[in-house]
UniProtKB/TrEMBL annotation:
Protein name per UniProt: Glucose-6-phosphate 1-dehydrogenase
Gene Ontology MF terms in the entry: glucose-6-phosphate dehydrogenase activity; NADP binding
Designated gene of the protein: zwf
NCBIfam families the record matches: zwf
One GO term of the biological process aspect: pentose-phosphate shunt, oxidative branch
Length: 510
């Protein structure tokens, strides 16, 4: 049964890239899967001048793109979907025209019986988030006397701890925290959620999930693309703000957290906040130098094609010191994780696109089988977030024959092996959750602030510290070799797909 109440989705920034590339396709898939409520209206809002018809045409074009993938979607079907879309042009001055917007919302509500249940999706430049919230509140559009009202806010949530706090206070002035949904699309990924299930629904992993058995944890987020058309935005952001502060620390919090009492939004988010607050903040220059490395991609030739260096990208300052590679080593100050190093890296223009978490277990206390292949190799649990979503366990097996020769073998599971492997796109999942009032996979204000608290000193050091280098790396390699200095002892980064002999069934597809 469809448990989604009748409602209206009001998208601010409806003429923008995110609406076109993510929101409309996600809505289309929900429509196709009959997950949208019976009475459902989308009202697009931005400054561009467009009629309902023109907006629908845009929607149809975007859905036609989907039609290639969804074979049974006829044009009629797509047009019926597009009929749910309306458009309101706010003109140049957002501040003055909310009266008109409120009237339009009310008319659509009356006509389509959306029960005065409204979601306001803010997909505009972040500087407008508070302004929009204020204007909505002045029109009474935050009032839940009749129907609920929710506001979805896109990243970035601030630029630093200070600006994040200011934004949270700004939003909370006009909407209650329970009405605010801060989207982090990594939380919508099936395999990120599977971290919780792997940990808390298997008795074989949780007893080992601590400093007694885990040697270190490694997280890699690599993209093969550069900054594409987003140079202007990215140059003011950099890898630490763009990926680490939000997506990667969200993953870290799911690995670090204690078992929640239950799977409710409140309990899971409480534990995540505690986890983020236990990250050891690096304060002095020596610690920051020893535990952080940043890099920037250089021009190169990949598969015979010349690719630009970061500083040559459109919108990027030719002398930019913005990092496209960030590697951070850190510790977690609590009972479970004391002295276990976490190594997290994120970068653009890597050899491939891959995100994975590797739990490296300690070697057995005593080596019974001398000269075995396992002596210099640990047991690993690899959680592949994307692509080839799945789990791989590396463990020792006896080589058949005389004596005890031990080799490392792979035990793997792929989502694609499941009979029902229709993995929902992250935006689809998150939109549906917000429509149903489930905030579990959305970030709470205190989570966002705790993440900034950890990241701020690194950003400050990279900006103002003495002798801070930014290392160049050729596009298409695994980052600057200088990042090896973070690793303790003889550890090496696991570069997925680099050693196919070791990774037979779990190699990365370019
Ligand atoms: N694109 C992406 O992949 C991702 C985007 N985001 C976030 O989503 C948000 C939107 O991003 P994206 O769609 O890429 O951005 P775009 O620049 O493509 O779109 C921005 C939208 O906001 C409107 N807008 C721009 N300036 C103003 C202004 N001064 N006053 C009122 N409206 C304005 C624009 O419409 P008009 O000019 O007609 O008013 C447009 O519809 C941003 O916060 C971004 O950080 C987050 C993750 C990924
Ligand atoms: O939020 C962002 O994420 C994308 C990577 O997302 P993925 O789902 O493709 O892994 C990244 O390219 C972008 O710079 C960042 O803003």
């Amino acid at each position: 049964m469809n448990k989604t109440a009748n409602q209206m989705l009001v998208i601010f920034g409806a003429s923008g890239d995110l609406t076109a590339r993510k929101l409309v396709p996600a809505l289309f898939n929900l429509y196709k899967a009959k997950q949208l409520p019976e009475n459902f209206v989308v009202l697009g809002v931005s400054r561009s001048n467009m009629t309902d018809g023109e907006f629908r045409k845009k929607v149809v074009q975007e859905s036609t793109y989907l039609k290639d993938k969804v074979k049974d979607a006829s044009l009629d079907f797509i047009n019926t979907f597009a009929d749910k879309f309306f458009y309101e042009d706010l003109g140049e001055d957002y501040n003055k025209v909310y009266n008109k917007l409120a009237t339009r919302i009310s008319d659509l509500n009356n006509k389509f019986s959306t029960g005065e249940n409204y979601i306001f999706y803010l997909s505009t430049p972040p500087s407008l988030y508070e302004v929009i919230a204020k204007n909505l509140s002045e029109q009474g559009l935050n009032n839940e006397t009749n129907g609920w009202k929710r506001i979805i806010v896109e990243k970035p949530f601030g630029y630093s701890l200070e600006t994040a706090k200011k934004l949270n206070i700004g939003l909370q002035t006009y909407f209650n925290e329970s009405q605010i949904y801060r989207i982090d699309h990594y939380l919508g990924k099936e395999t990120v959620q599977n971290l919780l299930v792997t940990r808390f629904s298997n008795s074989i992993f949780e007893p080992l999930w601590n400093r007694n058995y885990i040697h270190h944890i490694e997280i890699t987020n690599a993209e093969s693309v550069g900054v594409e058309k987003r140079g202007g935005y990215y140059d003011k952001s950099g890898a630490l703000r763009d990926m680490f502060q939000n997506h990667l620390l969200q993953i870290v919090s799911l690995i670090v957290m204690e078992p929640p009492i239950d799977a409710s939004a409140q309990e899971i988010r409480n534990e995540k906040v505690k986890a983020l607050k236990s990250l050891r903040i690096m304060r002095d220059e020596e610690t920051l130098y020893n535990n952080t490395v940043r890099g920037q991609y250089l021009a190169s030739v990949i598969d015979g094609k010349k690719v630009k260096g970061y500083r040559e990208e459109e919108g990027v300052d030719p002398n930019s010191k913005t990092e496209t590679y960030a590697a951070i080593k850190f510790f977690v100050d609590n009972w479970r994780w004391k002295d276990v190093p976490f190594y997290v890296r994120t970068a653009k223009r890597m050899p491939t696109k891959v995100t994975e978490v590797v739990i490296h277990f300690k070697s057995p206390h005593h080596q019974v089988f001398k000269n075995s292949d396992m002596n210099n190799k640990d047991n690993q649990l690899i959680i592949r977030i994307q692509p080839d979503e799945g789990i791989l366990i590396k463990f020792g097996v006896k080589v058949p024959g005389q004596g005890f020769t031990v080799e490392r073998a792979n035990l793997d599971f792929y989502y694609s092996n499941l009979a029902d492997n229709n993995v929902m796109d992250a935006y689809e999942r998150l939109l549906l959750d917000a429509m149903q009032g489930d905030a579990t996979l959305y970030a709470r204000a205190d989570e966002v602030e705790a993440a900034w608290e950890f990241v701020d000193p690194i950003l400050d050091y990279w900006k103002n510290g003495s002798d801070v280098n930014i290392y160049g790396y050729s596009s298409g390699v695994w980052g600057p070799t200088n990042s090896d200095r973070l690793l303790e002892g003889d550890l090496k980064w696991r570069n997925p797909g680099e050693n196919l002999a070791d990774d037979p069934g779990f190699c990365v597809i370019k």
